Every structure is written in structure tokens, then in C-alpha cells.
Amino acid sequence: MPADTLTLTDNRTAKTYEVAIKDGAIKxxxxxxxxxDADDFGLMTYDPAFMNTAxxxxxxxxxxxDKGILNYRGYPIDQLGEGSYVETAYLLLxxxxxxxxxxxxxxxxxxARVEVPxxxxxxxxxxEQSAHTMSMWMAGLAALSAAYPGARKVLDPxxxxxxTLRGIAQVxxxxxxAHRRAQGLPIVKPKAGLGLVENFLHMLFDREPDPVLVKxxxxxxxxxxxxxxxxxxxxxxxxxxxxxDPFTALAAAxxxxxxxxxxxxxxxxxKMLRHIESVENIPAFIEGVKKGEGRLMGFGHxxxxxxxxxxxxxKQTADAVFAVTGKNPLLDVAVELERIALSDEYFIxxxxxPNVDFxxxxxxxxxxxxxxxxxxxxxVARTSGWLSQWEELxxxxxxxxxxxxxxxxxxxxxxxxxLENRG
Length: 423
Ligand code: SDX
What we know:
Elements: E1 5-10, E2 15-20, E3 61-64, E4 69-72, E5 75-76, H1 77-80, H2 85-94, H3 100-111, H4 133-147, H5 157-182, H6 196-205, H7 211-224, H8 231-240, H9 246-257, H10 265-276, H11 282-290, H12 309-325, H13 330-342, H14 345-349, H15 357-366, H16 374-394
Antiparallel strand pairs: 1-2, 3-4, 4-5
Helix pairs in contact: 2-7, 2-16, 4-5, 4-9, 5-6, 5-16, 7-12, 7-16, 8-9, 8-16, 9-16, 10-15, 12-15
S-citryldethia Coenzyme A binds near residues 227, 289, 295, 350 and 355.
């Protein structure tokens, strides 16, 4: 059996090196021994945007982008929809599906913490009503850091457990409060006797939630809960590696998610569909994209070079929601846009398929959410994934404060030139 090593020859020096291969990777620090002379730093890897760099080991989520596979702790995403978001959050955090007693205890623990400190009653009035809801929600996450100084004990497992529960529960309340502010409406407090997602809808819309919509949002939250080392989760890990409290790290992660190339894409998709407006305008829009005049938002993915398995489930969920809310007229534009794009060489060659953001906004809009809430809805669900990944980071003996290196291509040392001599 050949050894699990890589033999590297540096042709600059004719020296050879044996580098260990473990878990399908080599350790980048093993390359530092490869030098031309004693002054040489040794080789580094250069990987802008981390296209082929593992920053951590994880046991939470597995993605096979070529096969369109997404598993949480080994369970396929399409099977987890049979359960609830609370069950999935437990699975992500603890690594196993809960039994009935564990699920009941976990659900009760979250609901017991769904209220936020009283200062939040007017917190969002510090913003103009026109402020973007995602911006307000992000500020709310940072404010939780002020509310819970005890959360700074990140090396204490009991503290991490307590504030993880508060985080998963209270991001929903903050989202509802921010939404009510944006709508010019008074806040609605959580109601005893409702489940977590039910309570969220109650706080948002101040009415008895329709069970079909509760189930649909549950499924959407399951789909958005985690996705291995995406931009916002990597941010959560990098910021968390400084041993800051989890709410500060959540605020940072939510900022990464807000970007239109990441979680902000669901809002961008809806605006794109509104801009296209009708099926007749699709060919001209596609031609514009192919000329580089913009992107087909909700399409493409760094890892999925096949159909995002979540997009398929979102599309199926749309049917159940529209049966209650009435069909979103933009659905026909989205379906035709997908059909045309998937048969166009530009998209086929680049392996661009619908991702999780392509259809989700159509459902959110039909459920009564303004577009400014779409990324917030992504973030409240991803909070369970962010905190699960953070817990794994803190407990990983391989990890220390994240601090990437650089390839310095700037000026060599030079002496200061006094102002009068600069010409
Ligand atoms: C999410 O990482 C995750 O897991 C994220 C996420 C999660 O759950 O956390 O899955 C959630 O963020 C989903 C992605 C949402 N974003 C969008 O829908 C925005 C539109 N999509 C893209 O901008 C793009 O596809 C990315 C950002 C998602 C991925 O970009 P990559 O992997 O960096 O690819 P790239 O930008 O280098 O593009 C490669 C080629 C380029 O063409 P060429 O230069 O080769 O000619 O594909 C083209 C791009 O121009 N391309 C697109 C396109 N996406 C890529 N062209 C038109 N429309 C698009 N959407």
C-alpha cells in the first residue's frame, strides 16, 4: 500500500520533500520547510477567496457539489423536512437527532428564552423607519453582546450552552421587532403556548399563524440552517477564534450574510424578477447577463456545480404556500427564467444552476414579508448553524486565533523623504 505522502521536488534546489497526506489534505505549514536559502520564509499556498483551502475540520455539514448532496450530521436535507427547525437545530448542535424527551426539553429551553431584555422594546426606534431591516437586525445582535456580558466566558461550556440557547431563540424576537419597526407597528411580545416558529409568525404579524405557513417556514429554516464553511460561517469562525463573545461574532457573521453575493441574493432575486416583470422580457435580460451587464441572481454557487438540493425543496414548498396565499405572479417568470437559463450554453458551460435563493423570496413575499426581511429570515435560521460551528471551533484543539499570511509585493525598504524634498 503506497504511503500517504506527497513527494515534492523543488527544481530550484533539486531537493525533495515528503509531505504527509491526511484526511485528503496536506498541511500548508508543511510547505514552510521548502526554501531556497536560509533567508527564505519558505513556501506558502496562495488561495484568494479560499477556493481550495480547508480552514478547519468539521463534523457538522457535508456537501458534494457535483452530486448535489447536502447532509446535516449525515442526514440528507430532504429527509430532515419531516421534522422541525427546532429538531434540526438540536441535531446541528448535539450531533444526534433528539428523542421525544430531549426534543421537548430543548424546545422548552428555547421558548423559555425567547423574550429579549426590556431595553429592546424601544431599541429599534433609534433607527429611521426606512432603515433596512437587516441593518437593524445586525445592530440587535451586537446589542445582545451588551446585554449579556456573561457570554464572554467562551471557554466555559455551561456559559456557551446558555448563550447558544438565547441566541437561537432571541434572534427571532429581534427580527420580529425590527420588522415591526420597519412597518411602523408596535412590537408584539412572544405568546405562551406557541412553538418557536409559530411564535415568530405571531410576533411578526400579530395574528393566529396558519399551520401551513408555519410548516413552510419550518422547512425553509431547516434548509437555511447550515452550509459548512460559507462566507458568513467562516466569518463566525474567524471572529470567534479571537475568543470574543458569540453575539459579537453573530453580528459579524450577519454582516457577511447581508452581501448580495451571499444571503442578500434572495432580496436581489425578487428585485430582479420585478425588473424583468414578464416572460416576454426574459430573452433580453439573459442576453444582458451574457454580455456581463449583471448577474442572474439566485443562480450559481461556489460548491454546487449541480442543482442546489435546497432549491428543489424550496420550489416544492412554494406550491403548499401558494395554495394558502395565492400564487406569486412572478413564479411564472422565475420558472421560465430557469428553463431558459438551464438550456443556454453560457450557463451550462459555467455549471450555473438555481441555488437556495432563487425561489425562496417568492415564498417570503407571498407570506407577506417585504424584501428587506428576506435576508433576515436567512440569518435567523443560519444562527443555529453559526453557533454550532462556533461551538465546534472553540472545542477544536487544532484551532487558535485565525491570522492568514500574505504575499507581499509592495515596495522594499526605503527611507522617509521630508515634505520639502518631495518635489
Ligand atoms: C449563498 O457558499 C455557500 O454555501 C453560500 C450559500 C449558503 O447557504 O451559505 O449557499 C448561500 O450565498 C448562495 C449564493 C447566492 N448568491 C447569488 O445567487 C448571487 C449570484 N451568484 C454569483 O454571483 C456566484 O455564482 C456566486 C457568488 C454564488 C459564486 O461565485 P464564484 O464561485 O466565485 O464564481 P465566479 O464569480 O468566479 O463565476 C464563475 C463564472 C464567471 O464567468 P467567467 O468569468 O468565467 O466568464 O461564472 C459566472 C461568472 O461571471 N457567473 C455568473 C453567475 N455566477 C457566476 N454569471 C451570471 N450569473 C450568475 N449568477
